[in-house]
Amino acid sequence: MNGRDHAAGLSSRLTSTAAVLLPPLAVLAGLIAAWELYVELSGISRVTLPAPSRVLDAGFTSRDLLFDNAVVTLKEALVGTAVSITLGIVLALVIDAFEPARRALYPLLVGSQTIPVVVIAPLLVLWFGFELTPKIVVVTLYTFFPITVSLVAGLAATDREALLLMRTLGANRAQTLRLLQIPQALPYLFTGLRIAVTYAVVGAVFAEWSGARRGLGIYIILMKNSFRTDLVFAAIFLVAALSLALFALVVVIEKAVVRWR
Amino acid sequence: MFQKDLLFPWRNVLDNAALGLEVAGVCGRDEARRRAAALLPRFGLEGFETHHPAELSGGMRQRVALLRTLLLGRPLLLLDEPFASLDALTRRELQTWLRDTWRTAIGTGEHGTRNKQLDANLPDSPIARLAETPRRSEGALLVTHDVREAVLLSDRVYVMSPRPGRIVAEVPVERGPDGVTDALRLARAEEAVLNALRLQDVPV
Predict the structure, then answer these.
(1) Are residues A60 and A34 in the same domain?
(2) Global pTM?
(3) Same domain, A79 and A13
(4) Which of A54, A148, A163, B16 could form a disulfide with A88 if both were Cys (CB 3.0 to 4.6 A apart)?
């Protein structure tokens, strides 16, 4: 590829990125403008509903505090997701390898998703204290399911004739898994991971809700109790931004790893 | 070798061709790649080492699949309709290519010279071993529905009946003194195969 082609490719990529980002950003800008206008015209109390400009202003003033708390929440989300990935890979491999394991474990996996996390989160605090552990448990409960389920589907989706080819070549089980099934299932793993990371930050906030020393969840409670609705909103926007950033990170890694698609 | 090429989309041409050797563990991954790379020109794949299957034509993909099979060096090649999924023109091209490659590869081709490069890279292969013998087609069993393909590529054609599949006729394909089958001999063999099929009430 020569320089000009490269430049053309880059500019067309920028154009397509803009085409993806512009419509949602335009809608968002419209909503924020409507919100600002409503607060301005209705004269609503700023404790009940602060204008977006005020949220931005308050958020900027408290940026150090917001940042410190966001780092804590982000760490919980990342560690929880890492645990989920490990757990999900192990569970998926076991489920794929042994049919009895599939029958025994799959219903339990689905069952785990019916646990009302809001209710057991306080219990987790009771058992594991105010530190990192209960947060990781909550985030893992939220995120391991999509990872496990999509990876199981990916391993099971292996082309039957490709499996036959590996047998013809004399491959043993480990080789079939390493050379065929796992690379083949990678796009599925990333699909699950994309869903998982959007839950991760919210899960961490939820866990902090039930008891924490620091983090955006406990920060939101504290601000609400001191009638700083503007900072509650600022923290909420930060949670959304963190989730989007994690999602984007997964997409970037996926593009780098799954290059053949 | 199967109807579908079954190349792995995440492996490039070289790694796909080397897959069999890698699985068999007869040599390291680098050595497997080196052996595959040495044969790429003969398979019309030179310069495509790092291309992925999605970037190749159907004919090229099938050639990679054949190379993957050949590199294993098994005493007998089983080809199950290897060209069935290709379009008519590409199929013709690959049939001719396979015939010529096979003939020159076993060293009794037009020039009567053995392919040194091939020998060096397929030390234990049927091709290398067959090079010692004048007979060519001991090395491969081809299953096909294409009568023309059968007579073009084979020394001997066995016609099978539809359910239950039994061998009902054996048609030898004659070769000229130069080892090449001319159009007349091909036509004769083709006619014999078609007649055998008609006797089985196969509409041809």
Answers:
(1) no
(2) 0.78
(3) no
(4) A148
In CATH, the architecture of B1-143 is 3-Layer(aba) Sandwich (3.40)
- Yes or no, beta carbons of A179 and B23 under 8 Å apart: yes
What residues of B are in contact with residue A171 (Cβ under 8 Å)? 23
- One-letter amino acid at B105 equals A
- Phi, psi for residue A20 in degrees, rounded to 5: -80, -40
pLDDT tens sequence across B101-149: 776 654 333 333 344 444 444 444 444 443 333 333 347 888 998 888 8
Say which residue the tokens 């605090």 belong to. Answer: A125
**Chain A residue whose CA is closest to B74:** A169
Q: Provide, rounded to the nearest whole percent, the portion of chain A with pLDDT above 90.
A: 73
As for the ipTM of the complex, it is 0.73
- In terms of domains, do A8 and A84 share one? no
CB of B20 less than 8 A from some CB of A: yes
Q: What domain range includes position A188?
A: 48-257
Residue of A1, A165, A178 best to disrupt the B interface, most CBs of B under 10 A: A165
Structure-block tokens of residue A243 = 């989730």
- DSSP characters for B124-155? TSHHHHHTTSS--GGGEEEE-S-HHHHHHH-S
